[in-house]
Amino acid sequence: MEKRTIFLYVLDTLADWEPGYAISELNSKRYFKKDAPAYFIKTLAANKHSITTMGGIKIIPDAVVGEFEIDETEMLILPGSEEWENVKHATVLDLAENLLNKGKTVAAICGGTSALADRGLLDNFKHTSNDLGYLQHTCKHYNGSENYQAVPAVTDRNLITASSVGALEFAREIFKKLGVFSTPTLEAWYQLFNTKKPQYFTELMDSVNQ
């Protein structure tokens, strides 16, 4: 089976929990439907230096921006961080723009959305973020207010965006876009973590074992 690469961009103060639901399920594949493609998660950074997440976890990146062919990339995930204004991260935003133009998927949450907004990359997509006022206040090149959606997560074509409190919905949109879960599995998975009701665990297990 063909193995496809998803890059998680890593930078200092990365908000550990924001991509957590998505990358743990994509890596473990524990609830994948039988004919789902195999995905390989790689970390990507501005340079080879280790980064330290908000939770204090040190990560040595697998790859540096510019070291690989775009055709290798199935999806680029941009998490929240307090470091997005650092100019060294401009190269990954160039990459994100290139991927979007080539029809590849970019998924951004929290600060990742504001970084895209400040490049004008959200303007022509339906999108969300932490708040419309947040984007208007912090992103001087943002002109996409008419496309802003006040919901936890949004998918429009090949762009997925989510607010800082939408990690669960962010993951759901990623799984839906990649087509790795069956519809019953995706619904049961989401409801289990969203409602905390044990009935959905049974539904989840039953859906996977069908």
Explained architecture:
Helices cover 34% and strands 19% of the residues. It is α/β, with parallel strands linked by helices and 210 residues long. Helix 1 (20-28) packs parallel to helix 5 (167-178) and helix 5 (167-178) runs antiparallel to helix 6. Strand 3 and strand 4 form a beta hairpin. It is built from seven helices and nine strands. The strands form two sheets. A seven-stranded mixed β-sheet has the order 5-2-1-6-7-9-8, sandwiched between helices.
Describe what is shown at a glance.
The protein is built from seven helices and nine strands; from the N terminus they run βαβββββαβααββααα. It is of the alpha/beta class and 210 residues long.
